[in-house]
Each structure stands twice: as C-alpha cells, then as structure tokens.
Amino acid sequence: LLVDLDDTLLVNDMDIFIPAYLKSLAGYMAAYHEPKGFIEKLLAATDSMVRNNDPGRSLKETFDSAFYPALGLRQEAVAPVIDSFYRQVFPSLAENTQPVSGAASFIETAFQRGFQVVIATNPLFPCSAIQERLRWAGVPPQQYPYAIVTSYENFHFAKPNPAYYAEILAKLGWPDGPV
Q: Are the CB atoms for 49 and 70 separated by under 8 Å?
C-alpha cells in the first residue's frame, strides 16, 4: 500500500509551508549565504532532483552536486549546519500543518490487515525531515514498521517520474499482487 504524506496523512498547504520552510532555512543559513540567493540555489538544486534520470545517482547526490557548488561553499563545511537546522528548527514548522483526521487509524488498520505500507512521499527532503513530518501526522516511523519511507538519501527518482514508482516496486521485490 503506497501512501502519500502531504494532504493524505498530513494537511500541508504547500503555499503556506514552502515559503515558511524556505524563509526559516535561509535565515538559519544567512551567515553562509545571503537568503535570496540561497533560496534560488536551493530551488534550482531541488529542480535538478525532479529532473534526475540517472539511476546511478541518488537524489541527495544530485542535489549536493548542484547546490553546494552554486553557493560557492564546501559541502563538508555547510552540511552539518543544515543538519542542525533539521534537528533544531525544522520541528517548529509543524505549526503550519495538522494531521489529517483518521490518518493514524487508517495506518493502524492497514498494518492490522497485513499490508506492507510504503510512505511514498516525493523524496525531495532528507529522511530526518520526512520522519519529522510523519510525527506531525501522528504516524511516526518509530511506531510503525513501514516497508519504505522515500527520501532523497534512498531514492534516485522523484515524482512525477514513473521511474519513482518502479523504484518503489523494485525495492519491494516486484510484488505479484496489486499495489
């Protein structure tokens, strides 16, 4: 059972969430790069993930190779600061979202009925951010044995690329039954 996250398990108006996220991250990184240019380069690197068709490069590798050189910064110097943002600041963005009513009981029922459950969210965020958003939705990965939670570290393709779904199916072992 492939379950999306945004507006399926978590009410997340992207017109509200994305600007708040970008402003927060760019502000956090202001000591390293001016915010407007930081956001432009972040969005361009995100677009490179959406366009990636190389099965030999994870979305994280695709992002990193586009993002850090564009900023003129060394990944080794800045990545720990960005990781810190996801641990310390990103959780505060929960105020822009709310759990979908019935989402937790839906996930509970799916597991009770024996489904393999995949969180098939667009893998444009780090795993830590997606796990945090699952907590906001009331279905944390520590509580549920998801078969896969898609993230930019463990996937090579993004939505709407059909290869994204093929990659999920391959990781599931090409199930015989309906998905």
A: no
